[in-house]
Amino acid sequence: MKDIPRLRTRPLKLGKIRIGGGAEISIQSMLNVKTSNYPEASQQIKRLISAGCEIIRFSVMDMEDAQAISTLKREFDIPFVADIHFDHKLALAAIANGIDGLRINPGNIGSRSGVASLVSAARERMIPIRIGVNSGSLPKELLAKYGHGKEAMVEAALSHVKILEDLGYYEIKISAKASNIPLMLASYRELSRRCNYPLHLGVTEAGTLISGSIKSALGVGILLEEGIGDTIRISLTDDPVKEVIVARQILVALGLRKGLNIVSCPTCGRTRIDLIDLAQKVEDAMQPYADKDLTIAVMGCAVNGPGEAREADFGIAGGKGEGLLFAKGEIVGKYPEEELLAALVKLVRDSL
Q: Average pLDDT of 179-199?
């Protein structure tokens, strides 16, 4: 893996996951169903875990959601984070039901005494609290003072942090998300200069699959390349499972994680096979090997394909109605187009 120098942040434990202090960057996502709807919540959690999600957040909007945590904790061995706004009693209920982490802003979660009781309960199990600042919901007084810039973002985050610090609590993560990439970058860079708490990276309101993936790859990827960031969530207006897939691909592409790498050539006039459809099918078929250190190539030209993808572990090079199967640049078989996918899957499976 690529050795990107990481900024050393204060380590903490979120359930069984280490965050900060040089630990591997963890992947998060969030349920988009009601937490107390057990059949839907349970099914979505299973799918997220299968996709490689390591931390799952969900909204706690009422006591039913808070009480559902204990049921979900009995079924799943994965850290859960409760996302709570304005009501410290819900946070206390989430803690009582076994939550692993909280996402709150102590400045608007309740009275000072309410925050103190919350911190006291969190301290018993050293439950991490994420301070989550979004550019779209900054306090009016900070906007009047600074405008819509990094100064308002950072001061908003650190003012919430100070409330916890004044109570002697330091199990803190921070996020400073914006939909504007330059603002997001500037805010996280400034935070990384001014404190050593672990940073949760993300681009908020990033958009649908394509636009959201591009914005997230830019914002999150640039910061990770600079050594900033300890855990990530890719926010997409789509199935949360796709957030996990995109997050994993960003980490693999940066060399920060080993994992499945699919390479495929752009179509051109030499292409005589349905390469677009084939590449998508290969990507789908290879998902069971997402955690394997594999490069799979899907090339559209039988003449140049094996050579151009010689560094791939396995691959396909298409021809007219047929294609070549190759491993480490060496041709290992020729198959009709309709049999190529099955032959590739068998080759990979038998080689692992």
A: 96
pLDDT per residue as tens digits for the range 139-153: 899 999 999 899 999
CA–CA gap between residue 92 and residue 303 (Å, rounded):
65
Write out the two tokens for 111. 């009275």
Domain 12-253 has CATH 3.20.20.20: yes
The SS3 call for residue 287 is: helix
Strand 330-336, strand 231-233: pairing: unpaired
Question: Which residues is 262 bridged to in the sheet?
Answer: 296
CA angle (297, 301, 307) in 5-degree steps: 60
Tell me the domain boundaries of the chain. Answer: 12-253, 261-351
C-beta atoms surrounding 11 within 10 Å: 13
Distance from C-alpha of 309 to C-alpha of 161, rounded to nearest angstrom: 49
| Rounded (to 5) percent helix, strand, coil in the chain | 45, 20, 35
The CATH class given to the 261-351 domain equals alpha beta
d(CA 151, CA 149): 5
**Predicted TM-score of the model (pTM):** 0.91
As a whole number of angstroms, the distance between CA 269 and CA 171 comes to 57
> What's the half-sphere exposure (Cβ side, CA atoms, 13 Å) at 19?
32
CA–CA separation, 58 and 32 (whole Å)? 8
Paired with 133 in beta bridges are 176
Place of tokens 């899957």: 345
What's the confidence (pLDDT) of residue 198?
A: 98
> CA-CA distance, 39 to 58, in Å (whole number)?
15
